[in-house]
Structures are given as structure tokens and as C-alpha cells.
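User
Here is a favour to ask of a fellow structure person. I am asking you to supply a protein in sequence and C-alpha cell form. Please set it down just below, with no commentary around it:

Assistant
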Amino acid sequence: MEQRWIEQNLNWMAGEFGAERLRGRVLLPTEEDFPGAYEGSSADVEALVGRLCRHMGVDPARIEVEHEARDGDPDLEAHVPVLSSFSGAAGHYRERGGRAVVAIRADMAERPMALVATVAHELGHVLLLGDGRVDPEREDHEPLTDLLTVFFGLGVFSANAAFDYSRQIRGEYVRTSSFRLGYLTEPMYGYALAVYARMRGEEAPGWARYVEPNPRAFLKRGLRYLAASRTSTR
């Protein structure tokens, strides 16, 4: 069921946005695609939004960026053992005065990979909801927007940010956290990336090495499945 949903909707996107977009550049977490030092400042975030607007073909004049405050007390967290988790959306999309307001949580600025995935998702709302391509009442419009990031060559970031576990030791205290971002699972991202690669005619995409081990394993599995399916239908 999920496989069919991914296949159908990536094909719909190819029809909606065109073959040129399908064959567009896949952005990677490299100096070439994101040059310069990144320190997580508001200026850095807004520069990144502008970079992604250009890549996704969204007029930056349509976008207003809001920075939301961090939850919790960082001073307390530095001295007390903490087990924390986060799941869901890290940004919020709405319209105000004819512009799309993209609100980004402050802690996203500390996670460049997740920040790119979050901004790409919110700009996807502009293309799908803001441009009237999808009814906002459509039940699957949030996972569809995650899938759009794959089609627009930003799936490496979205897949890598789908789940993150970290453990920090500060003296005698330990902080562990789990972080799940977005609406697609790692297996779904892996298969979506495999279908995307196949649609682009890439049997062994070079960009796959930038995908984290978990989603990359599902990507490779998806590529094998698609290759076997094509062979069996000849």
C-alpha cells in the first residue's frame, strides 16, 4: 500500500512539475551546495531559506520567516540528566497578508540537516497548498509534502533527518535524546528515493552515499526490488 502510494504520487509530481524538474540537481550536505560557515544564526537561517527558494522555484518575496523560541531551559538541561524526544513537524505553515509564513523552531537552527528538511517541507506547502495543487483537506497532504522534498532533490536531507538519536556526556550527567522529524518513515524514504532514482534513470545513484545507513539500506533494497520487478515483467 505504501509502495503504491509513493509510486503513484511521484508519477503525479512528474506530470505536475515536469521532466526538467525530475532531472534537476540533487542537493547534498556539501560545501558545493551549501558553501560558507553555518553558525545557526537568524541570518544563516534566512540565507538557507533563500537558497532553497531558488532551488525549488519559489519566489522569496512570497515567504516570511518567523523564528520560534526554544522549548525548555538550556541552563537546566546542561546540569540535569535528560531523556527527551521529539516527533512531528518542526515548522508551521500559514498565510498572512498574501504571503506564506514559514515559522521555524529555534532548536532546528542547531541541526542543519533537519533545518534543510524542515524548510523544504514548508516550501513544499507553498507549491502544493499555496498554489492550489492540493486541497488542504486532503488527508495525506502532510506526507505528500514530505514526498515532494524527494522529488525536488532534497530527499537526502529529509531521509537523514527522519530519525536521530544522540547521547551527550557532560561530566557526571548524561543527556540522551531521540528526534523524529516529518511524516514519512525511514523505510518509506528509502523506497521513495529508490523510485526517484529509477525515474531519473539512475541504477546506482552517486548521491546515495550521502544517505545515512538506515534509510540507505532501504534505498538499496528498493533499487533491487525495482530492478527485479522490471526484469520479471519483460
Observations:
- The beta strands are 63-68, 82-88, 91-96, 99-105, 163-170, 173-181.
- The first strand starts at residue 63 and ends at 68.
- The first helix runs from residue 2 to 17.
- The chain has a mean pLDDT of 83.
